[in-house]
Amino acid sequence: MYLWDKIFKKVLQGKNRYGSKIIMRLKQQFTYYYFILADQTTVGAVRVIDKQEYGVTKRISPIFIMPEHRNKGFARKVFRLAEEKHGNHDWELDTILQEKGLCHLYEKMGYCQTGKTEVINEKMTFSILFPSCNGTI
């Protein structure tokens, strides 16, 4: 099970101390939350942070694809749709460094590591920033 899956499961069960913080973030006026559908089935969800101000960074945080639907191109398509809806400039994102699959996905999509990290605990290093190498996602 992926680390993010474990965290998300605990949040849904109310067993994660960050659950209320996540719910608060979802209610922010500059947060856009989308379900990812395939053939009328929810296969994931994504949160886009877009303050709709020129020069202010936009973020995807988080994106979640159900394990049985991963590696089918959904995440890549979501990024393209987010770019169409929210503009193709001023994007950045972060991820859990230990999630090699996510790091690989973002790098394939043109994001570069900046080297900025925040160690959460001995098992999780967070906030590896990936500003787009070419200005678009």
Do you know the CATH architecture?
Answer: 3-Layer(aba) Sandwich
Q: Low-confidence parts, pLDDT < 50 over ≥5 residues?
A: none
Strand arrangement, major sheet:
1-2-3-4
Q: Into which percent range does the helicity of residues fall?
A: 25-40%
In short:
The protein is 29% helix and 28% strand.
Folded structure, characterized:
With about 140 residues, the chain is an alpha+beta fold. The protein has one domain (about 5-130): Gcn5-related N-acetyltransferase (GNAT) (Aminopeptidase), CATH 3.40.630.30. Helix content is about 30%, strand content about 30%. The protein has 4 helices and 8 strands; from the N terminus they run H-H-E-E-E-H-E-E-H-E-E-E. The protein has helices at about 5-10, 20-25, 75-85, 100-110, and strands at about 30-40, 40-50, 60-65, 90, 95, 120, 125, 130. It has a 4-stranded mixed β-sheet, with helices on one face. A hairpin with an 8-residue loop joins strand 2 and strand 3. The chain is globular. The protein starts with a helix and ends in an 8-residue tail after the last strand. The mean pLDDT is about 80.
